[in-house]
Amino acid sequence: MKKNKKQGCLGCLGVVVLVVVLAAIFGGGDKKETSTSTTKESQVETTTATETNKEPEKTEENVPTEYKSALKKAESYSKTMSMSKAGIYEQLTSEYGEKFTPEAAQYAMDKLKADYNANALKKAESYSKNMSMSKAGIYDQLISENGEKFTPEEAQYAIDNLKADYKVNALKKAESYQKQMSMSPDAIRDQLVSEYGEKFTQEEADYAIANLK
């Protein structure tokens, strides 16, 4: 009888242990699945938030018409007038110029494909050919805030690559002063070399006076 009772107790104890084990197995599985599900949901939410925060890129279709017009104007100023970057921007935004908004003008400058070294050289050639200017005079005009507004590097590139006969330029200036202002040779020489005048070298000025008729 005692033996049966003891066996019965052992049987009950076995059942209890089995229930606990099964509960642990199934309970752990649910927790693992819940954790995995939560992680996936978190990843989806993070990805969605990241995609939402991305700024839409400006395509050709959604660029404002004003911006496109500013770019066309900038291209025209660079191609036909060989203007500097700063000069073009100022012309685009000027109240006496194109009157574009700063945003439209900046868009144009960012998108404009221009060789400002080449533009500076073309301007330098024009100043030499049409105005018979000196080397120093051309350089100063290229970088001047009241002139062309090229960078010093762009202006130096232009001067280094400009093919000009500055003695001939000095002579043409001297002839102009003599003919239009009836100046004396000495006064012309002073004007040619003056820092506030033509900025020719002494040698160039002497050549001009020696060949002045």
From TrEMBL:
Alphabetical list of InterPro entries matching this protein: Ltp-like_HTH (IPR011434), WH-like_DNA-bd_sf (IPR036388)
Pfam families (alphabetical): Lipoprotein_Ltp (PF07553)
Signal peptide coordinates: none
Organism superkingdom: Bacteria
Compositional bias ranges of the Basic and acidic residues kind: 52-61
Compositional bias annotation for Low complexity: 35-51
Stretches assigned to the Putative host cell surface-exposed lipoprotein Ltp-like HTH region domain: 66-112, 115-162, 165-212
Annotated segments matching region Disordered: 29-69
Protein name as it appears in the record: Immunity protein
Upper taxonomic lineage: Bacteria, Bacillati, Bacillota, Bacilli, Lactobacillales
